[in-house]
Fold:
Amino acid sequence: MAHAAGKDLVAFLLGLLSAAPAPPPGNAPANPFFGAMNAGRMRAALQTVVERSGWGKRALPKGTALGAAFYFSHMGYFAEVAQVSVTASKQVKVHKVGVVGDVGTPIINPKAAESMVQGTVIDGMSELMAQEITLDRGRVVQTNYHQHPMVRRSQAPAEIDVHFLQTANPPTGLGEPALPAVCNAIFAATGERIRSLPLSKHGYRWARTAAV
Amino acid sequence: MPYKDTTRVGLHPLQIAWQELDVPQCGYCQAGQIMAAAALLAKTPSPTDPEIDAAMDGNLCRCGTYLRIRQAVHKAAAMRHPAGTSQPGHAGRKVAGGGT
Structure:
């Protein structure tokens, strides 16, 4: 939609979040695990990750682009920028992912929270590229991981930078905030818009490091 | 030998690095990861990232701990070849070659 509007993706997303109606006053939900998204908190997360990633400020080599996305997960707010390159033969390399999360304070186990976010970025990449469950005559087709591949270490990004905003909100769940920023980056790098997953259906593969 | 060292003493540099960096999540793959890393370090004491990838690409991790594994392998490699400084708790365990 941003592309159709002729706008920079991040500017478009921030605009949508600014235009969202303000939450009603005293918006402390009785149930901390269920409620509507607070657009202001999401905007702050997106703004922070965009600044940390240098969106719009860095020259990137041809075939490399940034994608951005945000996700509201278990009452936690997550925004992500992914730096992705795509070769002419549709090999995709996710070089670096920046994630900013707002799950309130205190975060009881910060190391576990960081690990969770890193892990789910990688798990999200697995699902994105080649994971789906299909049925044939009532039976699941995929019998093992060779038909449902997981990202291997040589395919994983070299860096996943996770930053939590320390906001004066009650702590919430973290969920599994793996985000689709990679598809936005692929579009920015190649002009091809992905409309269905997994990516392998459209001829994409992960690139691997040289020695593997 | 790496296996004997890790189970009996618990002070292999990889085990220390794994603890310091809080590498595992669910832990399911970690025994294999550590063994593969130990075998790598026995042959290649200071591996590069591509060398780590090549040696350990067969060890899948659903929890996505790959980044911390790589950091821990580098940390363990540095512990064993600390460029002249001695490490507390490692007295007498500096490895010249062979062994672990």
Notes: Chain B touches chain A through 22 residues (CB under 8 Å). DSSP finds five helices and no strands in chain B. Residues 66-80 of chain B form the longest helix (15 residues). Confidence is low (pLDDT under 50) at residues 84-100 of chain B.
